[in-house]
Design goal:
The chain is of the alpha+beta class. The protein is 33% helix and 25% strand. It has a single domain, classed as Glutamine Phosphoribosylpyrophosphate, subunit 1, domain 1. It has ten helices and twelve strands. Helix 9 packs across helix 10.
Length: 299
């Protein structure tokens, strides 16, 4: 059996009092999710199945900005985005501006597996969810106190976007990303998480999921740029991720985090901000759960 590996993130950006006050909860949630996904791989699950199942756990955790706990736009509404990509087949599915769907990542999977399209938005995506009997929840299920407070204080950030990358026993890789977007955004705003090549990308060389300032991730096509640097410039995974984040000639004007995995089972996190909620079990079976640059919790 080939080496297996799985990594997750739960958002990147500036620190906050809420994050510090709920540090233990975040670490516990990350650990539960990464161990669940890795166990699926141990038992022979495909990379695509593993990333979907793992992201579902994070979407159900109200501490993260995806699914339950999603950010509220300027109208006080939840609009969710998600994407999933199979690096072996180079197929992908994405959804945006979705309401009511309990697990948006599973709807993105349906787009990939059950339609001829890559991206569905709004009412069309919801119609597909209903067609496939995906679990729907009332609007108030998704709304949590911290997001209401952010909206009242007119904060325009959305810490907590989630993602997962995996390498399965057959050597296949997959990536998935899910988000509730940015607090107090204009209704209809779509971020990077559902954009293939920006917030989510996988091929035969690497699988990546990004988090942070979505507009910056989109214009820099961050996830795909990592793959290109490896393929065309021969950079290692770590070098490629660090180059995208720390390029002095074209510095990224925002908070960005990259999580990436290669076919050797090497896991890389690179970020230019205070923290990146993250966890991984790499090819050696080593578990790491961190938040800050110097943190070493649960190593």
């Amino acid at each position: 059996m080939n080496k297996i590996a799985l990594a997750i993130h739960g958002g990147a950006g500036q620190n906050s009092e809420f994050i510090e006050a709920n540090k233990d909860g975040y670490l516990k949630g990350l650990k539960i999710a990464v161990e669940h996904g890795y166990e699926l791989l141990v038992n022979g699950a495909s990379a695509v199945d593993a990333v979907e199942a793992t992201v579902r756990i994070l979407e159900d955790n109200p501490l993260f900005n995806a699914g339950r706990g999603a950010a509220l736009n300027a109208d006080g509404k939840v609009e969710m985005d998600a994407a999933i990509m199979d690096g072996n087949l180079l197929t992908a599915g994405a959804i945006s501006m979705v309401t009511k769907v309990k697990n948006p990542i599973s709807l993105a999977r349906k787009v990939m597996s059950n339609t001829k399209h890559v991206h569905l938005a709004g009412y069309g995506a919801l119609k597909l969810a209903e067609l496939h009997s995906l679990e729907l929840m009332p609007d108030n299920y998704f709304i949590v106190e911290r997001q209401l407070n952010d909206l009242k204080e007119e904060k325009s950030y959305g810490h907590g976007t989630v993602g997962c990358v995996a390498l399965d026993s057959m050597g296949r890789m997959a990536a998935a990303t899910s988000t509730g977007g940015i607090s107090n955004s204009l209704p209809g705003r779509v971020g990077d998480s559902c954009m293939i090549g920006a917030g989510c990308y996988a091929n035969s060389n690497c699988a990546s999921s990004c988090t942070g300032d979505g507009e910056v991730i989109i214009t820099n096509v961050v996830a795909h740029k990592v793959a290109l640097l490896m393929e065309l410039k021969g950079l290692s995974l770590q070098e490629a991720c660090d180059f995208v984040i720390n390029n002095k000639d074209q510095p990224i004007a925002g908070d960005v985090g990259i999580m990436s995995l290669n076919k050797q089972g090497e896991v890389v996190f690179s970020f230019n901000c205070d923290r990146m909620h993250r966890a991984s079990i790499d090819r050696s079976g080593k578990l790491v759960v961190d938040i800050y640059h110097t943190d070493s919790s649960l190593k």
